[in-house]
Amino acid sequence: MTKEKFDAIVVGAGMSGNAAAYAMASRGLKVLQLERGEYPGSKNVQGAIMYANMLEAIIPDFRNDAPLERHLVEQRFWIMDDTSHTGMHYRSDDFNEVTPNRYTIIRAQFDKWLSRKVCEAGGTVLCETTATGLEWDSAGKAIGVRTDRAGDVVLADVVVLAEGVNGLLGTRAGLREVPKSKNVALAVKELHFLPEEVIASRFGLTGDEGCVIEAGGTISRGMAGLGFLYTNKESISLGIGCLISNFAETMERPYALLDAFKRHPSIQPLIAGSEVKEYAAHLIPEGGFNAIPRLCGNGWVVVGDAAQLNNAVHREGSNLAMASGRMAGEAISIIKSRGGVMDKASLSLYKTILDKSFVVEDLSKQKDMPSLLHTNSPNFFTTYPQLISHAAQNFVRVDGTPKIEREIATTAAFLRARSRWGLVSDAVRLASAWR
Amino acid sequence: MSTENREACSPPSGRAAMKKELPKQFQDYRNVWVFIELEHGQVHPVSIELLGEGRKLADKLGVHLAGVVIGPPGGQGTANAIADAFAYGADLSYLVESPLLAHYRNEPFTKALTDLVSANKPEILLLGATTLGRDLAGSVATTLKTGLTADCTELNVDSDGSLAATRPTFGGSLLCTIYTLKCRPQMATVRPSVMAMPQRVNKPTGSIIRHELKMLEEEIATKVLAFFSDGDSNTANLAYADVVVAGGLGLGAVQNLQLLKDLARTLGGDFGCSRPLVQKGWMPVDRQIGQTGNTIRPKLYIAAGISGAVQHRVGVEGSDLIVAINTDPNAPIFDFAHLGVVADAISFLPALTEVFTKRLEPRNLEKFVQ
Amino acid sequence: MHLVVCIKQVPDSAQIRVHPVTNTIMRQGVPTIINPHDLAALEEALKLCEAYGGEVTVVTMGPKMAEDALRKALTFGAHRAVLLTDRHFAGSDTLATSFALAQAIAEIGETFGTPDVVFTGKQTIDGDTAQVGPGIAKRLDLQQLTYVAKILSIDAASREITVERRAEGGSQILRTRLPCLVTMLDGADAIRRGRLDDALRAARTKVVKWSAADAGIAEPANCGLRGSPTVVKRVFAPTSREQKARQIDTTNKPLREVADGLIAAIFADQPALKHDLGFLGSTGQQGVPDVDRES
Ligand SMILES: Cc1cc2nc3c(=O)[nH]c(=O)nc-3n(C[C@H](O)[C@H](O)[C@H](O)COP(=O)(O)OP(=O)(O)OC[C@H]3O[C@@H](n4cnc5c(N)ncnc54)[C@H](O)[C@@H]3O)c2cc1C
Ligand SMILES: Cc1cc2nc3c(=O)[nH]c(=O)nc-3n(C[C@H](O)[C@H](O)[C@H](O)COP(=O)(O)OP(=O)(O)OC[C@H]3O[C@@H](n4cnc5c(N)ncnc54)[C@H](O)[C@@H]3O)c2cc1C
Ligand SMILES: Nc1ncnc2c1ncn2[C@@H]1O[C@H](COP(=O)(O)O)[C@@H](O)[C@H]1O
């Protein structure tokens, strides 16, 4: 059999790979997509909140048939210590709009749907097929991939590496480094099934309304990390993640952390009586702007988590993945339509488009945030949360102590824990990293 | 039942709730029949279990119970089968004897049974869910275009006299009760060991009604070239063992299976396993216990290193006493076992064997198969 | 040779959840798989195809999404896939299912060549009846070989097949004529992994989709609920045992002592076992009072 040749091979059928494959296939390119999972999404883990705009840019009428769980009308931010949480809740009926902005999704279903769109657009998708290596020509240009199925190399003008944070293809080929442990978080997540009515009543939701909780504090035992609880139709996604480097230092076990989070008195009643299915662990790139590797070369581009395009501060990953995938796909289509060769110079079009987009802009704006939170993690994740709950309790408890004494006690507690200078400098650094 | 297609899970649909008006041609169908399975001259125990159930149904309906015996002429097999039928409650028996029926083959057996049914019109027909019973029941039901409910775990008679057949569905996660509307006979199969063995009673035999098989060997396309008996030596007869010791993935390594065998031997019982061990090739498939393996109802079942998944559970629930050995105190098997030991099976099994050996007469060893 | 394999898409029964109140299956997040026994049948068909040449057609009756199962079968190396889907089929029991499949197989024969062997799995893991195979055989008037452990030989010239069939208490060697229907036991071989070109071909093969009418079913009265003599009247969850297992105390005890405790509890619960097993008493000597009273 003669070797098959494609315009592009996309490795991975996650958010970024599907976006890239769709962008190219819908523009008439001959696309082959390889996915090692049993079906697209079978192995993919996400909270998961999906942001509508980035998907709209790819499939404008996605709301007609995409498997969406709930649209979010309420966001809770919780600061937790061992027995309490201090929270800010934002809920607005404005979010019950015709085209809501954020949805919870279940990746296994969502990815499958998006992949179907790729097929409908003319792409060829092979599941249970792992790309095992890149094939190079003598001039050092990627010309195809090898797979774990018996048979030949498949050839293509360009390979889009959409292989996720762990992506071995790119790291093995030396296109980028293995992500540093201080730049990757490990998140563990469970899906808790509950009847739809129970979820609706526990969170005060009607119809497809959804609520999410993001929680930080002593639950991460001093490590840089956050917990989350997202409502789906008939289930609740619950998880917690911390930096790999922190796990290594503290010898904490991720599952123990999740277990404690589940048992926290503020969380436990929300999931009581649920049936747990699916336990998953996954990495999240958290290095931000400074960790972005080389994005293209001769015959290849890298997109999504594999390119460390993930905004840890805002917990956005899938949208950057979708956006970067789409942009790579568009760039490749443009080069193809001009009859250009897919080399490093022409493919830098992708980088140019990406640099100008919100993707890189957002990441560069907060480029110092990751390192700040990481180096000061005990303060941000243990000391402050404890102080805040202490303060809140002082504020609400009525036991005959004069109010002024309590306020003094609160201030003193802050100062004892963190010198005045420390407090100020944390505040300044936090503010400037955010800006 | 292909329950999946029929939204089995919704509450009774309009049709199910409907009054069951039986078409005229079926209104004179009466009596309960049990197919007595004979293989190589032996009556299969499942047929006896079914006679017990059949008797109860016939009594509730106020009708006769008949045993149906199909086999070769002259041998002891059919005679024994008829004797058993009466001893376990049948009021009458139907007998089809022909040299063509020496070994089980689908064509002549299907013809014999369908002709019998058409001529004598039973309202209920029960068969064992064995390789033979299932092969035959499927053909007979299709020929007669009637309903057949497989692997029932409970049989009952409704207030209007129809058969309510309950069976597990979705791998034992749910049970459903199935009716055969508008057709007769109402057919059902039951797996060996699911129903209790009834008492043998010595009572006068009833009438034997003979039928002829109208078929020639030349008309039968399928020939039996050979039969290799499993003998007693190396196959499991788990379904009927009094004591079963089984192991699961928790045993960790293939050599640890010896620990099971040692205990089973000491107790004069048999040994089995959960499905993953079969998949790993550690044990042959006939030793698998559960939904897709054997159903067992021993007096004592000891499960070592088995988590107790629902597919395993449905195969062992009929045991008189279930003992579970598992390192995980939260293992689901402790939800349905009677006695639990939170211990490492690999070290506990030898200790248990040792203590049993001291406490028991050495006679059990002879009973041990293999 | 033309081999037709009936496959069914089933929920992965290990992962089924039941709604605690309504007792309905909660399908969300429950993955579907090809009925595992059908994979054994498919593997056998692919093997025959390698040995004798020919084509493998897979067919399923089910909802639209059953196309996924067919696609997968194509990836394993099947040449053609037929999806039989129609709202008239909804609510089929095994009699109605085998009717529809038999019609479709007859139509497959007309369109793509008469099948030599029709395969089904031993049984499905959701329906679990093992009835559909025999039903198809009867309706198509094919010789029926159930519980086949191994296909020993096929003689293309005399059009005969010899198989080893699992029977009660042993194995039968059966010979019959083609065409026939085989329900396959799980064999020794797992389903193969298709080659890259199989996978590529599969991705490009269009699944043939037939409605009832396309399959030559003029009279839908034999299909779906109307064609099903059986009806599911009630669905309920098995009653769970009230009590959890009584745990034998193991704290700081040597294993032999734990074993003693367990044995005492076993005989306390099932005194008749003492006789069955030949119990000598707790100290190993005959006549010594045993442990009944302990618990
Ligand atoms: C617990 C958790 C919660 C999150 N929550 C959110 C959230 O709420 N909102 C949000 O926007 N983002 C969230 N993220 C981040 C988001 O999941 C990722 O940013 C996004 O999935 C990245 O998409 P991707 O396509 O780059 O990678 P992935 O989705 O990981 O896809 C990579 C794909 O490539 C396949 N693959 C890898 N190697 C090969 C190979 N060699 N051959 C073939 N296939 C291969 C994989 O199987 C996989 O399907 C979360 C992440 C985690 C872990
Ligand atoms: C369609 C279908 C049909 C199936 N049919 C069957 C069937 O018929 N029969 C069947 O059994 N399964 C069946 N299964 C599989 C079933 O779902 C489970 O996967 C299987 O029963 C688990 O086997 P296990 O308990 O041996 O293994 P596991 O679930 O892995 O459990 C091992 C257990 O051993 C314990 N353990 C570990 N180490 C030790 C130690 N040293 N000492 C003591 N305990 C230890 C662990 O705590 C754990 O509970 C079926 C599945 C499907 C999908
Ligand atoms: N809807 C269906 N479509 C295709 N094949 C089926 C279907 N239902 C059952 N079968 C086949 O019939 C066999 C026995 O099924 P069952 O009688 O449901 O246990 C299965 O292993 C399949 O090969």
From TrEMBL, chain A:
Residues 369-435 form the FixC-like C-terminal domain. GO terms for molecular function: FAD binding; oxidoreductase activity. Pfam families: ETF-QO_FixC_C (PF26311), FAD_oxidored (PF12831). Keywords: FAD, Flavoprotein, Oxidoreductase, Plasmid. The keyword Oxidoreductase applies. Its cofactor is FAD. It comes from the Bacteria. Belongs to the ETF-QO/FixC family. PANTHER family: ELECTRON TRANSFER FLAVOPROTEIN-QUINONE OXIDOREDUCTASE YDIS-RELATED. Part of an electron transfer system. Could be required for the formation of a functional nitrogenase Fe protein. Probably accepts electrons from FixA/FixB and reduces a quinone. This is Protein FixC. It comes from Sinorhizobium medicae (strain WSM419). The lineage of its organism: Bacteria, Pseudomonadati, Pseudomonadota, Alphaproteobacteria, Hyphomicrobiales.
Automatic annotation (TrEMBL), chain B:
PANTHER family: ELECTRON TRANSFER FLAVOPROTEIN ALPHA, ELECTRON TRANSFER FLAVOPROTEIN SUBUNIT ALPHA, MITOCHONDRIAL. FixA and FixB form a heterodimer. Signal peptide: none annotated. Residues 32-224 form the Electron transfer flavoprotein alpha/beta-subunit N-terminal domain. SMART domains: ETF (SM00893). PROSITE patterns: ETF_ALPHA. Belongs to the ETF alpha-subunit/FixB family. GO terms for biological process: fatty acid beta-oxidation using acyl-CoA dehydrogenase. May play a role in a redox process involved in nitrogen fixation. GO terms for molecular function: electron transfer activity; flavin adenine dinucleotide binding. Keywords: Electron transport, FAD, Flavoprotein, Nitrogen fixation, Transport. Its cofactor is FAD. InterPro entries: DHS-like_NAD/FAD-binding_dom (IPR029035), ETF_a/b_N (IPR014730), ETF_a/FixB (IPR001308), ETF_alpha_N (IPR033947), ETF_asu_C (IPR014731), ETF_asu_C_CS (IPR018206), Rossmann-like_a/b/a_fold (IPR014729). Binds 1 FAD per dimer. FAD binds at residues 274-275, 288-292, 305-312, 326. It comes from Sinorhizobium medicae. This is Electron transfer flavoprotein subunit alpha.
Automatic annotation (TrEMBL), chain C:
Gene3D superfamilies: HUPs. GO terms for molecular function: electron transfer activity. Keywords: Electron transport, Nitrogen fixation, Transport. Residues 22-219 form the Electron transfer flavoprotein alpha/beta-subunit N-terminal domain. It holds the Pfam family ETF. InterPro entries: ET-Flavoprotein_bsu_CS (IPR000049), ETF_a/b_N (IPR014730), ETF_b (IPR012255), ETF_beta_N (IPR033948), Rossmann-like_a/b/a_fold (IPR014729). May play a role in a redox process involved in nitrogen fixation. FixA and FixB form a heterodimer. Belongs to the ETF beta-subunit/FixA family. This is Protein FixA. It comes from Sinorhizobium medicae.
